[in-house]
Amino acid sequence: MKKHLTVTTVLITVVLCLFAEAAQAALSPQQLERAWKRISEAAGIETTSITIEDKKEPNAWVRFSGSDHAVYVTTGLLKILNKEDEIAGILGHETGHIQLNHYGSTIGRNLLWALLFKNVKGDRNSELLASLGVGLAESGFSREQEIEADDYGIKLSVKAGYSAWGLVNALEKMRDAGYETSPSGFNSHPPTERRLQHIRATARTYSQQ
């Protein structure tokens, strides 16, 4: 009887290990494509492509070229995510940058700040202060855009049929993997914990609808 129980216990352990490994499996390119198809259709985007770049750092971004744009996702990001809802949340966020015209407004701000500080003259400290002012102003605007894109991404994910918590879970996994934004006036992204507090509240709102 003891031998029988021991063998059964071993078999159960093996099965549980296999399930655990499966749960940690990286997202496949097919899952990424499926998520992007649903997200882009929900947003009404037809021409934007999506590209996987072989980079260790988990990241995603939009590359703009004139009126064209493309979404990029790293293999490092796909490796730490294991649910389609999570990549959908990330893609929804990046789509927010496109649909909310963040690129166009950033270009406009850059021109404005260039004009404001064009005639700043004086010693080296004045020039450094002017450069610092531009950096801090852009950082503040960028943080506002990131928050807008987060809210848009969650709303879009729900519209596409995904969980409102996908983006939250994705950012938590990025944080747990050692990738997070620390509190600093020079970071364009909001500090990770503050950002998570905001998007948890947003996800909770859409979950209750």
Write a structural description.
The protein has 209 residues and is mainly alpha-helical. The protein has a single domain (26-207), classed as Zincin-like. It has helices at residues 2-23, 29-43, 75-80, 84-99, 102-116, 124-159, 166-176, 192-207, and strands spanning 49-53, 60-65, 68-74. The protein has a three-stranded mixed sheet with strand order 1-3-2. It is globular.
Layout: helices, strands, pairs:
Elements: H1 2-23, H2 29-43, E1 49-53, E2 60-65, E3 68-74, H3 75-80, H4 84-99, H5 102-116, H6 124-159, H7 166-176, H8 192-207
Parallel strand pairs: 1-3
Antiparallel strand pairs: 2-3
Helix pairs in contact: 2-4, 4-6, 4-7, 5-6, 6-8, 7-8
Structure described in brief:
The chain is built from 8 helices and 3 strands.
What's the arrangement of strands in the largest beta sheet?
1-3-2
The SS-based structural class is: mainly alpha
User: In total, how many domains does the architecture comprise?
Assistant: 1
CATH class: Alpha Beta
Number of helices: 8
